[in-house]
Amino acid sequence: MPGDDPPSTDRRYTAALLIIGNEILSGRTRDANLPFLAETLNGWGIELVEARVVPDIEVEIVAAVNALRARVDYLFTTGGIGPTHDDITAASIARAFGVPLERHDEAVRRLQAHYGDPALLTEARLRMANVPQGGTLIDNPVSAAPGFQIGNVFVMAGVPKIMQAMLLGLEGRLTGGRPLLSRTVGAALPESQLAEDLARLQDRFPDIAIGSYPGFAGGRPSLSIVLRGRDQGPLDRAAEAVAEAMRRLGAEPVFFG
Question: Which of 48, 53, 137, 253 could pair covalently with 38 via S-S, beta carbons 3.0-4.6 A apart?
Answer without folding.
Answer: 48
